[in-house]
Amino acid sequence: MSRDRLGDLVADITSCRRCPRLVAWRESVARTKVARFRHDVYWGRPVPGFGDPTAHLLLVGLAPAAHGGNRTGRVFTGDSRGVSGEMLFAALHRTGYSPRPRSLSPSDGLRLRDVYIAAVNRCAPPANKPTTAERDACLPFLARELRLLPRVRVILALGGYAWDALLRALADEGYQVTPKPRFGHGAEVSVGPYILLGSYHPSQQNAFTGRLTPRMLQDVLERARGITHPATTE
Questions:
Q1: Could you give the percent of the chain with pLDDT greater than 70?
Q2: Is residue 233 part of a domain?
Q3: Is the bond leading into 179 cis (omega within 30 degrees of zero)?
Q4: Model-level pTM?
Q5: CATH no. for residue 71?
């Protein structure tokens, strides 16, 4: 019987050095910093997932931001010029998954409810673009996460990159859908024991152009909650 635990997975993720390009980039960013964070000590390592280990919802993004998760050690947290974390945590708060509408750092005491947040790639990539080889090197971490979160029933992919990576990871676990489901905002498909949902990524570009609005993201999260906690009828 496997004795793998979430704590073991976190340790393996944070010590990973599989991808030389990403190792060099994340450590360079942590040394050079940017002016607004010049006094901060950067994390500069792979960023593990975090949240409720009994979660029914797993939320998966692309990768940590260079001056966000790569600085704080928590994905979707800390880049004051980004909107991804601001939009995401506000939506999580409105749908009951987070007690607060903002995440500042891993030491802020935030405790998510019924959701676990991770990323396909655990290191901040140059230009926010991991290579195919770098994606594939990280997928085993995602597969382990799924095995170690036994109550997860819904997986929410933030963006087409996460959608494709999740389908690959699930296929490697023996859950394959043919033909390949197409990504789109609000896309929904059954994959083995899971429901895979799609949402546009809460990136600055998507937010500023109106491609993704706070209401749209909230609707997808409400759909996730409706699947895992359907309303009872008399």
A1: 96
A2: no
A3: yes
A4: 0.95
A5: 3.40.470.10
